[in-house]
Amino acid sequence: MKMTWRWYGEGNDNITLDQIRQIPGVSGIVWSLHRKTAGEVWEEHEILAEANRIKSKGFSAAVVESVNVHDDIKIGLPSRDRYIDIYADTIRKLAGVGVEVICYNFMPVFDWTRTDLYYPLPDGSNALFYEKASIAADPREMAEMIIRGGGTFTVPGWEPDRLSRLDELFAAYADVTEERLFDNLVYFLNRVIPVCEECGVKMAIHPDDPAWPIFGLPRIVRNQDGIRRLLQAVNSPYHGLTFCSGSLGTHPGNDLPAIVREFSDRIHFVHLRNVKVFQNGDFVEVAHKRGEGSVNLPELVRILHENGYEGYARPDHGRHLWGEEAVCRPGYGLYDRAFGAMYLLGVWDGLEEARLAGPRGGEVRVGAE
Ligand code: CS2
Ligand code: MN
């Protein structure tokens, strides 16, 4: 398991590469050209500059999250072919700088959705929270809160220019059922996966967050059956999954260990974070440690270890600690993600030690010399 860190780029993240270098075991940066809108061309020199900036600090730049998919592809408009060509071209260019994995999602209109970005936790920190009862029928109300919460940063999936076109977007999605969305995803994959096979890049779809439809928009990557159907529909090792415990873990019906087991050979990237799910279906993001929330991260790490997972991982979101919410991106502060990375690596190292000690290594031998 190779530990990585999501970084939003110079001037677009309050955290620097020099700070990230001081977190033991973090060997790679998960990056993107964050100022690009979906469907825009990524120029070779821009890609090269960003990858070199990351590599010059000693990090690998093998994972990109995300290359966003244009809504015309998700809706299935005739213009999709042009956007798919641009996407395929970006894949080729990314392969040229050593990118191995692209994480993306196929959620209509928005990325992750929460009702409160700074929900107070009993320990005095705060974190992203989702309250079922207060999810606005009209996403415009949520948008205002999210834009305000992002401060000087734009929150991915909630960019002001996209929000200004919400009426148009919702009208375009009016006939897009789950079935059509699925067909449109398969259409997209049938065009880009051959390119991936040719240049050695793995596509890793991120599950929907939360793991159910919202605002009347369809969502299809949210449970084990849906993931199985999708992976079978385009059956290539280059078409895989970003296993995100925090997204799939929002739905109590999802058996996370079973999902990791079943798709182990198609998981190319893992997001390991904890959520606490309440009786009424609300959830809040909490610390990575076992017992803090509803997800048992050491169990998931153990299964990955048993399966010999050699792919990339990141701690994903964290709580905002020690007042950092004043400066950081919502969910992407420094401290809790650093704790998360160390905790997960600690679990991994413990498993490695146990493996090296052999099956009898942990036994207390009574009466031994
Ligand atoms: C995040 C997502 O919500 C999450 O768990 O990891 O924002 C993720 O980055 C995107 O959906 C990937 O496209
Ligand atoms: Mn995630």
Tell me about this structure:
- The chain is of the alpha/beta class and 369 residues long.
- It has a single domain, classed as Divalent-metal-dependent TIM barrel enzymes (TIM Barrel).
- It is built from 13 helices and twelve strands.
- The protein is globular, with a radius of gyration of 20 Å.
- The model has no long low-confidence stretch (mean pLDDT 95).
- Bound molecules: D-mannonic acid and manganese (II) ion.
- Manganese (II) ion binds next to α10.
CATH structural fold name: TIM Barrel
Strand order of the largest sheet: 1-2-3-4-7-8-9-12
CATH architecture: Alpha-Beta Barrel
Tertiary shape: globular
Derived from helix and strand composition plus strand pairing, the structural class reads alpha/beta
Bound ligands, each once: D-mannonic acid, manganese (II) ion
Mean pLDDT: 95
Tally the structural domains.
Answer: 1
How far apart are the termini?
A: 37 Å
| Count of alpha and pi helical runs | 13
Give the strand tally.
12
**Multimeric status of the protein:** single chain
Low-confidence stretches: none
Radius of gyration: 20 Å
Keywords:
369 residues; alpha/beta; TIM Barrel; 4-stranded antiparallel beta sheet; globular; binds D-mannonic acid; binds manganese (II) ion
Topology (SSEs and partners):
Blueprint: E1 2-6, H1 17-20, E2 26-31, H2 44-55, E3 60-65, H3 71-75, H4 80-96, E4 101-105, E5 116-120, E6 126-130, H5 139-150, H6 160-163, H7 166-172, H8 178-199, E7 202-206, H9 224-233, E8 239-244, H10 245-248, H11 256-262, E9 267-271, E10 274-277, E11 283-286, H12 297-306, E12 312-314, H13 335-357
The structure holds D-mannonic acid and manganese (II) ion.
